[in-house]
């Protein structure tokens, strides 16, 4: 069983990480991984943290969290417990929600110098491959889990990926480890458990080398996908605009087979879940090749695929702030909703906004409905809808631009223009954005 430690130590030595984070569920695979890393740290002074995610799905969740912290103390590795709440009404599968929540909190602990360690093993790889096969996946899906890759700002490693569950159990018993037994792992209503208990035992009994064959197929699919990406990389770079959108002319000039692969590579570059074949076809047919005057969109998980000015955009699902309002006073910052930042009206002799003579208050809105304005340098008012079109603001951003009003008159659309009627030097509007706002002005 010392071979297991030697192999894990070899993988870590090759990567030379500055810091380790272990995804620690307390199950047998992550419990063995914790023990192996504790052995590794006896010979290598490397900071290490174990993260246990408390989903609250089991009546034993609190007990497991406490037990994981005790095991961590025994091994000399700090265990951080992260609590997450799952939205049972969102329509996603429980497995998917738990997985997404787990990776989201793990990402918080990963920086550019950190290697995250996952305890997934050969049995998990077989199950992942079979689930991808069940979905009708191509090479990308069938490549299953990579032993090493990028995660958040750092890297991840699955050092046990070629080790079977039986070998892990043998090691745990030899060194007298205890671990969490999650009762949900016996529930064959979950696809992965069904494969684990009723399918793979039959396959391996018939074909003892089935695991190795799956591993080879996954590696071959990963190689094929890498070659495709390499061959199309130059074309993808030429097709991508500076703001991350995809120029449609590049799709139009490509073969039908290459178009789908370019779209998938582009979405992979956006770091979102790969679309199915059906979704890829919908993106091409209903978004990229829609009528020129259409304003199409396709929901893809929490994202939307949109088209604007002959480019494809992948954006987070549009949020409507039409009902949000606030008063804007001089030198009193206003926090805008969600991640839209902070708006300030600063008294300044070098400003660009005139205060009204009647001292009427300024307010902030995001609803352009029925509003008109005449920007500085223009003659005559136009509806904001028309002005947004002139300023090349994509439709999904139009209700995320703060509008400053004074008695129902538009003072400014922040980031676009000041109204001629309010042109002056009493104060300055400053929009501090917490995130880069993808305006195409």
Automatic annotation (TrEMBL):
Keywords recorded for this protein, A-Z: ATP-binding, Cytoplasm, Ligase, Nucleotide-binding, tRNA processing
An example Gene Ontology molecular-function term: tRNA(Ile)-lysidine synthase activity
Domain Lysidine-tRNA(Ile) synthetase C-terminal, residue spans? 362-431
Main localisation: cytoplasm
* InterPro entries given in the database record: Lysidine-tRNA-synth_C, Rossmann-like_a/b/a_fold, TilS/TtcA_N, tRNA_Ile_lys_synt, tRNA_Ile_lys_synt_N, tRNA_Ile_lys_synt_subst-bd
State the domain notes: The N-terminal region contains the highly conserved SGGXDS motif, predicted to be a P-loop motif involved in ATP binding.
State the protein's name.
tRNA(Ile)-lysidine synthase
């Amino acid at each position: 069983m010392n071979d297991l430690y030697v192999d894990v130590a070899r993988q870590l030595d090759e990567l030379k990480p500055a810091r380790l984070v272990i995804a620690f569920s307390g199950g047998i695979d992550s419990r063995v991984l914790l023990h192996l890393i504790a052995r590794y740290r006896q010979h290598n002074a490397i900071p290490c943290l174990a993260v246990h995610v408390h989903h609250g799905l089991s009546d034993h969740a609190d007990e497991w969290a406490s037990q994981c912290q005790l095991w961590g103390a025994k091994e000399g590795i700090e265990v951080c417990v992260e609590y997450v709440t799952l939205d049972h009404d969102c329509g996603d599968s429980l497995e998917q929600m738990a997985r997404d929540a787990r990776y989201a909190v793990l990402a918080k602990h990963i920086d550019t110098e950190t290697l995250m360690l996952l305890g997934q093993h050969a049995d998990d790889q077989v199950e992942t491959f079979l689930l991808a096969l069940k979905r009708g996946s191509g090479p990308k899906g069938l490549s299953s889990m990579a032993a090493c890759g990028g995660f958040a700002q750092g890297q991840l490693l699955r050092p046990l990926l070629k080790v079977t569950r039986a070998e892990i159990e043998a090691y745990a018993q030899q060194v007298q480890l205890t671990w969490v037994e999650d009762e949900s792992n016996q529930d064959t209503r979950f696809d992965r458990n069904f494969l684990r208990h009723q399918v793979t035992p039959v396959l391996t009994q018939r074909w003892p080398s089935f695991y190795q064959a799956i591993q080879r197929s996954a590696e071959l699919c990963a190689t094929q996908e890498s070659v495709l990406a390499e061959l199309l990389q130059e074309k993808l770079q030429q097709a991508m605009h500076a703001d991350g959108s995809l120029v449609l002319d590049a799709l139009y000039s490509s073969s039908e087979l290459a178009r789908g692969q370019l779209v998938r590579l582009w979405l992979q570059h956006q770091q979102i879940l790969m679309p199915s074949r059906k979704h890829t076809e919908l993106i091409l047919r209903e978004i990229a090749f829609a009528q020129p005057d259409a304003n199409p969109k396709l929901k893809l998980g929490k994202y939307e695929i949109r088209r604007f000015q002959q480019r494809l955009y992948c954006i987070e699902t549009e949020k409507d702030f039409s009902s949000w309002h606030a008063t804007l006073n001089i030198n009193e910052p206003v926090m805008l909703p969600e991640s839209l930042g902070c708006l300030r009206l600063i008294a300044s002799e070098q400003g660009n906004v005139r205060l009204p003579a009647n001292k009427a208050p300024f307010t902030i809105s995001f609803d352009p409905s029925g509003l008109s304005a005449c920007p500085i340098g223009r003659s005559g008012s136009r509806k904001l809808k028309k002005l947004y079109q002139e300023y090349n603001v994509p439709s999904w951003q139009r209700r995320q631009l703060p509008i400053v009003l004074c008695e129902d008159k538009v003072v400014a659309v922040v980031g676009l223009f000041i109204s001629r009627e309010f042109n002056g030097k009493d104060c300055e509007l400053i929009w501090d954005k917490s995130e880069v706002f993808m305006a195409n002005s």
